[in-house]
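Each record in this resource describes a single protein on a pair of labelled lines. With that in mind, the following record should read easily:

===
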Amino acid sequence: MNIIKRVKTPTPKFFKVLRNIGLALAAVGGTILAAPIALPVLITTVGGYLAVAGGVLSAVSQLTTTEERSNAGK
């Protein structure tokens, strides 16, 4: 299954919830990183980690499908 077909297939409900959580984490992390005031280094580091973790969580959740492979061993 190629990547385009995989993105177009239905996503299970659990992974839709995880995708939304990931998007929220990425948004919070991006907001912290783009803050117009100087923040402590610890907070900006946490913001960077939140943005990356949220992006990865959303991407992996979006690519999870409900289809089962009939040729699992091939």
The CA atoms of residues 25 and 54 lie 5 Å apart. The mean pLDDT is 87.
